[in-house]
């Protein structure tokens, strides 16, 4: 699927090694009430998808990004998930730090990262882990990774190790860190992250071991990747539970994008009344919000404008979208 469903790699202005959307958990309680049980999950970007997957527990997940490097990063994560027995082992491998003494299955995410806070990257551990990642992907899984792909593995894994748990969206620039994202809450006191509990971690790990989290390369307004996922889901009588688009639509609504093609591609996905977009808007009003997919598809078919379900403090609609 990685080879057959994907498009050619495109470019993006940021490397996006980790998410920068600290509000991404706030919609999870409502999303869990809305979502189709055991539906399919679609997403974009790096690790934040694992938290949505842990919360929604889909039957299958496809993560689509225009950057091939994102697919490489997700394959690195796949290898590390598969080789790690628990959360502490996972963090140790992800950042090439020694596993702290005393952490257990019941250790909270906050305490887990405090325990790792004093650890430094280890050069020999880095080389050993990097070799293990490549061996897992190339020798065990037989992914047809090119020399350029393997150089990308070197680059991404080195950045994760050098940045450590304090790595941010733009490596070491100011912003939300990996730790802050893993220890955030939904605004009601509950942390849903995939490292918040051992059960969350093991759910994602098992999906990785069963090849049910599929990273793909593609443009949301491209001709191939979303329709390919749609065909696969229809062939397997699956329905989209949630589609996390982040703020990608802001870019493809620009003069350089082709938003109408994105709309047409989304219309190929099998949805029901519960299928939900998870969107994020950037800027001073940055926040995560939910929108019904079926309403979006119906508006596209009828040629209507559709307001985003996001308003300012005075109740004014902040954005409208038209597929035409």
Overview of the molecule:
By secondary structure, the chain is an alpha/beta fold. 43% of the residues lie in helices and 12% in strands. It has one domain. The chain is built from 14 helices and eight strands. It has a six-stranded mixed sheet, sandwiched between helices. 43% of the residues are buried. The model has no long low-confidence stretch (mean pLDDT 91).
What is this structure's SSE topology?
Blueprint: H1 2-5, H2 28-34, E1 40-43, H3 48-56, E2 60-65, H4 68-83, H5 87-95, H6 109-116, H7 123-140, H8 147-163, H9 178-182, H10 198-209, E3 213-217, H11 225-235, E4 240-246, H12 248-252, H13 259-266, E5 276-281, E6 287-292, H14 293-302, E7 305-307, E8 320-322
Parallel strand pairs: 1-2, 1-4, 2-3, 4-5
Antiparallel strand pairs: 5-6, 7-8
List the main descriptive attributes of the protein structure presented here.
single chain, about 325 residues, alpha/beta, six-stranded mixed β-sheet
